[in-house]
Please model this.
Amino acid sequence: MSEIVEREVLLPVPVEEAWEAVTEPEELEEWLADEVELDLEQGGAARFRWDDGTERTGTVELVAAPVRLAFRWEDGEAGASFVELTLIPVDEGTRVRVVETGPYAPVGMHLQALAASAGAVHA
Amino acid sequence: MAADVFAALADPTRRRVVSELASRQSVTATELARVLRITRQAVAKHLSALADAGLAAPTRQGRETRYELTPAPLEEAVEWISSVGGQWDDRLARLERHVGRRASR
Model:
């Protein structure tokens, strides 16, 4: 497993409506960032700004309406990471799965173990 | 910075060096080379990369240079990863509330 983060949420709406919520800038501004620009096509530019002054720029990597959106974004602290949103229609609505992967992802699983063994000797 | 730690630990031999450093108070490059069965030159390169990432620190003891692990950046990197998860928890909770409000209209 190379993901560093994998999360899922169930939205009580049909997949088309869930797709709008995760792709339209004014919808994304309700939950992802305070200001969002997103050119919804492969290679399109993305820009996310938060009121605390942080900002991320990125590129849309994949658009498959209404089930999959993937983009790369640049975080100043740890470099670029890849975010993939997958929408799965279910009886109760739409399941939204988020996976964020970074160049650091393969290291993530070793980190905890190394940090723990370091803590035991060097605490 | 978390990125430096991730880059330093991307190399499997370097992770073994960190494990060895973690299991003892301090070690010389020669001792490490013997334990890891790689050349002293290779060990020195890895130690210098780890030092650049803030993960190892050299101390002179008489004629020898001993290295010890400086684990703070490891803990910061672990915290960084868990903060990425926490951010998604917050975002998805907001998404759930937002869509729920819309669905009930």
The two ends of chain A are 29 Å apart (CA to CA). The CA atoms of residues 2 and 105 of chain A lie 5 Å apart. The helical segments of chain A are 15-23, 25-28, 105-122.
